[in-house]
Specification:
The chain is α+β, with helices and mostly antiparallel strands and 182 residues long. Helices cover 28% and strands 31% of the residues. It contains five helices and eight strands, in the order H-E-E-H-H-E-E-E-H-E-H-E-E. It has an eight-stranded mixed beta sheet, with helices on both faces. The chain binds coenzyme A.
């Protein structure tokens, strides 16, 4: 077992899991990612056109060794949470280290059938709380300039625009860089 997998295993003994009602009144459970969630996470990623893969999420979760190289992330997640609705995984969020004091939201997605119910916001809020617990001072992310829904979500959680990266995505679209002080 890799060091990261051992760390994830140790963290799991703390069994972070909470039931909550979203701002839209939907009951969900938010909990740490488990290996058996991989298929659901990849399906939600695909349905959300995020471009991730089983290999990348396995690496982020510490289920395989993280190595820097083409198509790989080269980092383990410091936060990897999933949202369950009626015992089905319907969304997830992953944050990776950006520096000693900062973290980066690597991916956030909710299955299209379960959007607009407050699940994305609940996942983001839970991840930010977890990053505060890890004593991170900042969180940042990149979002497609055309992705107004995600930008609205981040603005509603007091993220501010701090930059723009042209041609950031594979199809040439630029990214807006957003940051929040934790
Ligand atoms: C972005 C995403 C995670 C939001 O998840 P969600 O569960 O549908 O979002 P929520 O219901 O929690 O809504 C949170 C906020 O997002 C914004 N939002 C959600 N749906 C919206 C819509 N159809 N139009 C405009 N804004 C919208 C609003 O600001 C909303 O807050 P409010 O309800 O208080 O107004 C989801 O749309 C998704 O998975 N998109 C594809 C993947 C993606 O773009 N990820 C982000 C990459 S940076």
């Amino acid at each position: 077992m890799s060091l990261a997998a051992e760390a994830m295993e140790a963290g799991r003994s703390r069994a972070r899991s909470m039931n909550l009602r979203t701002t839209k009144g939907v009951t969900i459970k938010i909990r740490d990612f488990r290996a058996e969630d991989l298929k659901s996470v990849v399906e939600i990623d695909r349905a959300s056109l995020l471009g991730g893969s089983a290999e990348i999420y396995a690496e982020l979760a510490g289920l395989k060794t993280a190595v820097s190289g083409a198509g790989e992330v080269g980092a383990y997640a410091e936060v990897f949470l999933v949202a369950e609705r009626n015992a089905e995984v319907v969304g997830f969020i992953v944050a990776v280290p950006f520096s000693a004091v900062a973290s980066r939201i690597f991916a956030l997605a909710v299955h299209p059938k379960h959007r607009g119910m407050g699940i994305g916001k609940a996942l983001l809020r839970a991840a930010l709380n977890e990053l505060r617990r890890l004593r991170k001072s900042f969180v940042r992310l990149e979002v497609r300039e055309s992705n107004f829904i995600a930008q609205n979500l981040y603005k509603s959680m007091n993220f501010t625009e701090i930059g723009y990266i042209p041609f950031y995505y594979w199809d040439g679209e630029g990214a807006i860089v957003m940051q929040k002080v934790l």
